[in-house]
Amino acid sequence: MESSQHGKMAATEEQNGHVEPLTPPTEKKMEVKDKYWLILQLIWLNLLILPYLLLEIYRKIFPPPGKSLKGQVVLVTGAGRGLGRGLALGLAKEGCKVAVADVNKDNALDTAAEIVKSGGVAKAYFTNVAKVEEIRELREAVTTDLGPVDILLNNAGLVHGDPLEVDVEEAIKGVIAVNLLSHFWMVREFLPTMRERNSGHIVAVASVGGLVAVANLSAYVASKFGVRGFMEAVRAELESKANNNVKTTTVCPYFVNTSAHYVDHCDIRIPAISIEEAVEATIAAIRREELIVTIPGYLYPLLNIMRLLPQYIVDQVYKIVYARIIPPTQHEKDVSPTAAIIKDLSDQDVI
Q1: Tens of pLDDT, residues 249-286
Q2: Which of 187, 243, 280, 310 has the fewest CB atoms within 10 Å of its CB?
Q3: Does residue 318 carry a catalytic annotation?
């Protein structure tokens, strides 16, 4: 009777989706595969370190000019204002045909018009990169108007600063949707044609906030750390393919002086960089097909070296070279473009 009852209980658990917990295998001990070949490979790898390190140092001192971008079709998201606008204008000067994508139609039209006025080729697209269906429409429109995208420059992002315990749920979801998830949707949409042509370049604008945390920017920092990891994963997938010629670049700028309102909420010891500096360094990184760059460039090796130091020392460095975010007032939140975008996403159940 007891056995029968146990059987009924087991059957019921199976119907309810209950799964027995996994247990480690005991019948076979796992071993290192091809251990002797592994030793030889590690020896060979160590022999390569010094020459490639010297080559990298040489490239930093005497950077190569890089590839020409003339005639390339480049899509810049968030190109209506700030850094995105600067990048669109700068790439147009390089001879690119620029697809100007922005959630604000007037800003997108203004950037495209300035490029055309200067003798370049550009077209504006009103797109919210957090919405997958709009990205699909964007790809079709750009391909029809300008041709297949050669350089996808994912720049669109929301800057939202609040202490974690008072940050509202919609704001957190909105920042992640625009700053991180949109990279998934954009790359998934534009990568297949790059793979078909075995040519293309995916560029992501992350942030130094994707390398080191900043208080009162938890959602933003998490999104930028995520972008950096996402781009490494994309590159790993591309490198797993034979004869891959699709490149990736991740750009991590320091605070960029995009507006007086933005700078007013940043209490930083080292001054923000200008849009022009960020644009010049980003375009140089694209031309040289660099994997990851910080702006200024010295921050990348410096931040990696700091990871080797005791945490107490690192904390003291951050107290000396501080970067503090001043949360906006409720009125500033209510009238900010970020708040309007987040509300639109919330109203349409995107977040």
Answers
A1: 999 999 999 876 777 888 999 999 999 999 999 999 99
A2: 243
A3: no
